[in-house]
Amino acid sequence: MGCYQEGNPKKKNSIEIKANQKLDEQTSNKKEEIANETEKKEENERENEGKDKEIELPKEPNEPLYKEEIEINQQEEKINNEPIQTNLKNPKLYPEEERKDNDNNNENREKEEKEEIKDDTNDKPEEQEKKEEKLREQIEEKKPKITNFIESKTYYGHNEKVIAIIQLNSGKIATGSYDKTIRIWDIYDIARNDEVKIIKESGKIFVLLEFEDDKILAGTEENKINLWDINSSSSECEYSFLGHDLWVNNLVKINDTQFASGANDAKIKIWNYYSHECLFELSGHTDCILSLIFLRNGKFCTGSADTSIKIWDPENKRCTQTLQGHNKWVKCVFELENGIIASGSDDHTIKLWKPEKNENEEDNYNLIQTLAEHRSSVRTFCQVDRRHFASGSFDNTIKIWEIDTWKCVETLNRHNMHVIGVISLRINGKIAIASCSNDKTIKIWEKDIDTE
Length: 452
What we know:
It is a single chain. The protein is α+β, with helices and mostly antiparallel strands. Helices cover about 25% and strands about 40% of the residues. The chain contains four helices and 28 strands. It has helices at about 10-55, 65-80, 95-125, 125-140; strands at about 150-155, 160-165, 175, 180-185, 195-200, 205-210, 215-220, 225-230, 240, 250-255, 260-265, 265-270, 280-285, 290-295, 300-305, 310-315, 320-325, 330-335, 340-345, 350-355, 365-370, 380-385, 390-395, 400, 405-410, 420-425, 430-435, 440-445. The protein has a four-stranded antiparallel beta sheet, with no helix packed on it. The longest helix has about 45 residues, at about 10-55.
């Protein structure tokens, strides 16, 4: 029996070399075979991948996207949202092109909106459309049409301060001045800027009142009330009412036969116009009466240099209430259409007094508001329309106030000296006011649109 002996090394090495060569040969063939198979497999995979890209089967609606597909979609969205670049024009250098594009886009949007509105309207019943149309018309009618006053005309003629101004029943206006004249102006004659009549007085004029057509009462510095007929060619007045001891500052009509006067002698006198008789007088103020009005409730209201406002009952011939609030002279008092009394003072303020019935069913006035926008004495008032009133001041301005809010909505500042008088006018169906001033002028102010 043979056995392996280590005694012959050469023989052993020869056998090992042959065995190794055979093994290497087999290994090499195996590697080559594996490489060929791998190459064929990769080639098949490339062919299949190309076919998959060419033919894409539709996905089910709820089929989830793979990560790669999500990234592809995001890239496509980004490309679609990027602005189209053009080599022809830079939009920043040609903004008109951008505006055209925007205009076209806006037009298209407007068309689409109009079409949508039409479609909506077509769906509504005809009765509903009529109701909505009527409602829109009512809203438009109620909208306030507010315009500013325009200075439409200025009259020159007086050579001293213009203190008094009224509108006559004929529509003309009359003014009185420190130059001792009464002048009549025809505001309807647009072409005419001068006065149509001049009446020469013997003293400075402080107040005017038309008691009957073309008959004017003038209060003067000579403590007289002179009656003038403006149609008369006479240079003399028809009659002089005598009785006051100092200047006559105020005149007010009570009824068809009576008028009242207030003066620097701190007295109120009630006169019979036709008999020229002083019926009675009221006293209670301790200083000059600077303003006098006749209230709708049949009482008088006076403002005085003693800083108080008094309410008077002419039937009982007594003062029924004294209003305290101003700390300087009360230059003017005025009753608004709603019954509220406005008072103006040298303390630069306007105070508003509202009537409330007391236990005797009499009006009792209470302070409700103080307006402090004027920078100097408040001298005069008038009602502009149902919703506004005006105040004239020594600060050379006229302020328009809204009655609902008590706010100043407009300031007229064309006078260059103290505003002494403002009145509301009836002229051409418009809202208008007239003002007189220490600058010797009379101004007419108009609004084109009625705000009532």
